[in-house]
Amino acid sequence: MKKGATTMASAGGRTMGTPKPRILPWLLSKLDRGELEGVAWLDARCKRFRIPWKHGLRQDAHLEDFGIFQAWAEASGAYIPGRDKPDLPTWKRNFRSALNRKEGLRLVEDRSKDPHDPHKVYEFVDSGARDSSQLDTSPETNERGSTSDTQEDILDLLNDMALVPLPDGRAPEWSPLHLDNPIPCPNPAPSENPLKQLLVSEEQWEFEVTAFYRGHQVFQQTIFPQGGLRLVGSEAGNRMLPGQSITLPDPEVSLSDQGVKGYVRRVLSSLGGGLALWRAGQRLCARRLGHCHAYWAMGEELLPDCEHGHKGEVTKDLDRNVFDLGPFVADLIAFMEGSGHSPRYTLWFCLGESWPHNQPWVRRLVMVKIIPTCLKVLLNLARSEGASSLENTVDLHISNSQPLSLTSDQYKAYLQDLVEDMDFQAAREA
């Protein structure tokens, strides 16, 4: 039997009347004793250590791989074997959130996607954190927890909540603390990751659509398209097709050159059923329903990427993935950590002509820019290092979303949680 299997019971749940341990002293004791498989010091100074971080849907995943998460769940009283149902994702999320809130600790390396040895490496940033306080020994107030235990629970709750009421004025649903005399908290929000709304199929993303004829902006509209959108050249298009149709304007008013007007009209007429764009889970897909050829690329908000060429042609009557939220969020985390460039979120489409590779894009007849505004919000939030006050809230710009107020650390933790959720979903689909 693996070492971790023998230590699960000995990891110890918090018994009645026992004060809840602080996570850093508790973790230090596990590291020093070597009680959990894969949880070990990496240097002689005992400052850097590793924690196994395997996804639960991997075929080689075993209960022992989650030993540290279950041990903390038991030690903190969040899980009692034999009474509570095992919940591996919640154990991992709670453990990570507890570590992320500690200033004396930082994530050094994230190797959770390593196919052979998935793990994360943490480091104590100062010697004082390595020799931090022992277990809380303040007197108990009742059999469910001590005074300091209650205070830590409240602080953890306040760190995770967004104190913003719902648009209709209702207080969000929440689960009260298990206290004999609970302390009232004003309008606490659910601890569920608010960014997961981005993956809910019923939620509609907002899109900003801008059209250019020979570099001149001729159209802009922001919509919540039910079932996606379709760029069409005539209002008389097929109304039976799915998605909200967006009719590109006739060039009569916007262009003066009669020859160019004629060419633009030919492009618009060949759109037929339109160029369709819709969301499928964490991805955006495109399909061309008419004869008009279309090429696409990710670019900056102000101009397309003409230097590196297009990403491909939008094929006729065949779905094509043009955006994946997973890599975007991963790049966003790297950007926040200072190890990467800001990810792109703007889709550019060139209609009726080849992509302007190393050519001025303003010479193309019809170019369309589509921005999923929720992605713009995510990047702006990363750049501003969070919206941490009630006066500085953000809206995800998806249907039924509510204003968020997050610190930079909370935002990063939610992004990491979102990446793991998308990885789990991808594993299920595979």
UniProtKB/TrEMBL annotation:
IRF tryptophan pentad repeat domain location: 20-126
Cellular localisation: Cytoplasm; Mitochondrion; Nucleus
GO molecular function, one term: RNA polymerase II cis-regulatory region sequence-specific DNA binding
Annotated Basic and acidic residues bias: 106-123
Polar residues composition bias: residue spans: 130-149
SMART domains: IRF, IRF-3
InterPro entries: Interferon_reg_fac_CS (IPR019817), Interferon_reg_fact_DNA-bd_dom (IPR001346), Interferon_reg_factor-3 (IPR019471), SMAD-like_dom_sf (IPR017855), SMAD_FHA_dom_sf (IPR008984), WH-like_DNA-bd_sf (IPR036388), WH_DNA-bd_sf (IPR036390)
Main localization (coarse): cytoplasm
Record-level GO cellular component terms: cytosol; mitochondrion; nucleus
GO process annotations (BP): cell surface receptor signaling pathway; cellular response to virus; defense response to virus; innate immune response; positive regulation of DNA-templated transcription; positive regulation of innate immune response; positive regulation of type I interferon production; programmed cell death
Span list, region Disordered: 106-150
Gene3D superfamilies membership: 2.60.200.10, Winged helix-like DNA-binding domain superfamily/Winged helix DNA-binding domain
Name by which UniProt lists this protein: Interferon regulatory factor 3
